[in-house]
């Protein structure tokens, strides 16, 4: 378990300019007619300011939304599920106007999530989906950069070593995006067409599946013109993940996860799944199994099948972060059709995708 460690000092505004320049000019390629929205918590205000300044330097309009821990937690405790599940008219209107968006993460202290009733989380998620529906329909360019979650409090909540997580995150963030592109393109070529894949690990994972004849997504931190033509308008930083559609009926075997699942202020430790023809027929965990079952029920596990996998590509990332999906050879499984690769078939209410941990990867013909 992580010890109580003081927070790393928040970098000054000026130190974020290089990252902001990369986001604005390389990842999003913003220009004169763009409307760039930035969602920030208190800890990430200096980064939000740097992003807004760089966007304005290339001619874009900007809007910053500030959320605070106290406002978020008090709202979750005091407001009704009706209020939480209702789309904010203001946020809905912003989603109609924006052409690019970035999320910087938060709240900082996940320990305060533990006494929030499950129905409040479900209602808040539903409200968010509703108010951001225009963003999805209009295919607004979107970057997930949840650096605001990188806090000692969250590390303590989920049993992470804060210093290791902090170091790994920033090393991964500094990797050249062109390197990620090259690694992703090579793996995508090897998975081109229908390929039989087996993954196994020392922890006991042994899973087999067949990929679909759909070109995979390489989440390399850059939303290129080709990505936009394909309708692939979402990416993440730190970068480094391939996402591939699989034939659900072909997914069979057992998963023994070494990555924990962070949920509602607790860590689901060593989750496991038995999968038959793409359906999770049994599941459990060493700790907080009840939370795992709650997540799966919310993700319609009784009807949804495994529809895609992810593979980490970032060689600088190490498997002690909150989200290990970019760690090289860390594989994830997702329920339902992939939301971007198979948009017409995807169900936005099915959102379960979790990493297994680093595995051995064998691609056949």
Properties at a glance:
365 residues; alpha+beta; Thermophilic metalloprotease-like; 2 domains; six-stranded antiparallel sheet; five-stranded parallel sheet; 24% strand
How big a fraction of the residues is strand? 15-25%
What order do the strands of the largest sheet run in, or round the barrel if closed?
Answer: 14-13-10-6-5-18
Cα Rg: 20 Å
Please mark out the parts with pLDDT under 50 across 5 or more consecutive residues, or reply none: none
N-to-C span: 43 Å
Task: Profile the largest sheet.
Answer: 6 strands, antiparallel
Label the structural class: alpha+beta
Number of domains: 2
Tell me the helix content.
Answer: 25-40%
In words, what does this structure look like?
With 365 residues, this protein is α+β, with helices and mostly antiparallel strands. The protein has two domains: 13-159, 3-Layer(aba) Sandwich (Thermophilic metalloprotease-like); 177-363, no CATH class. It is 32% helix and 24% strand. It contains twelve helices and 18 strands. The strands form four sheets. A six-stranded antiparallel beta sheet has the order 14-13-10-6-5-18. The protein is globular and about 50 Å long. The mean pLDDT is 92.
